[in-house]
Amino acid sequence: MQPRQAVFAEDYIEETVAELARLRTMGGLDPIEEKWATDVLAEYFGVVAGTPSISRARARFEELGPHTGRELEPASTPRPRAQATVSGVSYQQFLDLCRQRRSVRWFEQRRVPAKLVSKALNAAAQAPSACNRQPFLFRYFDDPADAHRIASIAMGTTGYAQNVPAIVVLLGDLSCYPEERDRHVVYIDASLAAMQFMLALETLGLASCPINWPDIEYRERAMAEALDLPWHIRPVMLIALGYPDPQGGVPFSAKKPGQSLLRTSNDYTP
Fold this sequence. Notes:
Elements: H1 13-26, H2 31-47, H3 52-64, H4 91-100, H5 114-124, E1 136-141, H6 144-151, E2 166-173, H7 185-203, E3 207-212, H8 217-227, E4 233-242
Antiparallel strand pairs: 1-2, 2-4, 3-4
């Protein structure tokens, strides 16, 4: 924050350190996340003023000791925007990529290399996420028979579900949010990741088709049974993907000009 207060995060700092200690004891913390948590807390205790609760939290944190190898890598702490890596992608290049990506329903019947999907997921993982919780999973089916079966559960796939060589079911993890007020966040965060995933597929020579997931109870049950989903994992959307059939038709979609989407007053007329 600017300007930074002398005392901040006091209401939950003891709980935060206690949770880090618990996860270290359990041994279930991802090394990257552990380094991030340790670096941020070390930075925090280095700048915050001492109060009774902060002092208690600092003492417990110091008992935990540093993360192994922390000094050998760049710190996982905030840094000035001026230090960010510049991609070099121009606006026109990005706009061309957005225009290139269109929903494809007709694919060549050949397997999609898993390494390409992994690359696209690396891009998806960079999408913004509330509190960086990333409450989503990509369930992938690359067997055509499985892809056909899963695609047919959703609405709107009649006539082409049998042509889908691979499919992703994008899942939201509600267990990441204990408060009911936040349960919509899984849909926002998963959708942000989905768009970056689909754009990345285009750069890898693959095409995609996001498939709307209806809020219909019997279809929810069908998908839960097909994927053996626990109660807290909910479908967000499906994404068909593969090598596009060069002769497969892609519907023309007239997009609204950006300016027509902008509102500077309370006139919401389409």
